[in-house]
Description:
Layout: H1 2-7, E1 21-29, E2 33-40, E3 45-52, H2 56-76, E4 87-93, E5 96-102, H3 108-114, H4 122-142, E6 144-145, E7 154-156, E8 166-168, E9 175-176, H5 193-197, H6 206-221, H7 231-242, H8 248-253, H9 257-260, E10 261-263, E11 281-283, H10 286-293, H11 309-314, H12 328-344
Antiparallel strand pairs: 1-2, 2-3, 3-5, 4-5, 6-9, 7-8, 10-11
Helix pairs in contact: 4-6, 6-12
Magnesium ion (MG) binds next to loops.
Amino acid sequence: xxxxxxxxxxxxxxxxxxxxxxxxxxxxxxxxxxxxxxxxxxxxxxxxxxxxxxxxxxxxxxxxxxxxxxxxxxxxxxxxxxxxxxxxxxxxxxxxxxxxxxxxxxxxxxxxxxxxxxxxxxxxxxxxxxxxxxxxxxxxxxxxxxxxxxxxxxxxxxxxxxxxxxxxxxxxxxxxxxxxxxxxxxxxxxxxxxxxxxxxxxxxxxxxxxxxxxxxxxxxxxxxxxxxxxxxxxxxxxxxxxxxxxxxxxxxxxxxxxxxxxxxxxxxxxxxxxxxxxxxxxxxxxxxxxxxxxxxxxxxxxxxxxxxxxxxxxxxxxxxxxxxxxxxxxxxxxxxxxxxxxxxxxxxxxx
Length: 351
Ligand code: ADP
Ligand code: MG
């Protein structure tokens, strides 16, 4: 990806005076490093500074983050209208690459937690979803796959005219479509079927659309949609909740299919397949997986949702109402939400 790296203006590096950024508090910690809230003594404003771990692999990946984000910011969203975080600067400091961003608010996981994991009002789900989708459309136009879309990587924007808003952050795992390198990507709950199944050379921006579907559902119900304790657990929850399974041509070509599926020479008897087509694969039973792995899936601390997607949406958020007693307007909203989600958690990446 040398053409991308060239996009970074290396002349910017090393021009910064010492003691420009004064650390006030730590905002977050991740695999790549730490993020600090800093006072920028040059512009007299707060900024978020991501300090990347001082190891070569992280440094390289951070250069990628800088390249892709500067391209997105400058070329594809020059007027800051598409809900993508603004990168302000970057500089090396004692073998750490540091990236400064505009200062944003809490991430969506923190917001859900503050709400006791009961989910947000539909009005906010709608606004946030529209804005994330707007960012994804721009990213698709740029051919950039985020590869780690999840509530922790979506931040509330400070209130302007008291309108609620969000921005997508953390391009630390992002890559260009057609130049995909890694096969072990995305956080497990938000991992798309094609990544789980190992379709490495072929994944596209569609994997972000899957994660987006998981996020929209989570914003409404307050809990992750596919909180699997293992990859098998995630996949079996998908199949149970969405109905059907990944299309046979994907299963045939993917590397990891045999970890999860049994294959019959012909059509698998009595198996519900993708889009009403009949399949020659069926997912392994939990017993078969247990017998193989001889370890049980861990049970989480929370009661996690199971069952069909429509039932789940209609019975949340914790209203103790079933479909029958929902007010007419809410019933329509739920139907629309289920319809929207079905388009997003779609097993066929081409769709
Ligand atoms: P990592 O790649 O390690 O996950 P992120 O870029 O996602 O790093 O940052 C980690 C956390 O730091 C985020 O989940 C968020 O809570 C906080 N954070 C990151 N950028 C900002 C920002 N611009 N403003 C406020 N908080 C931020
Ligand atoms: Mg992150």
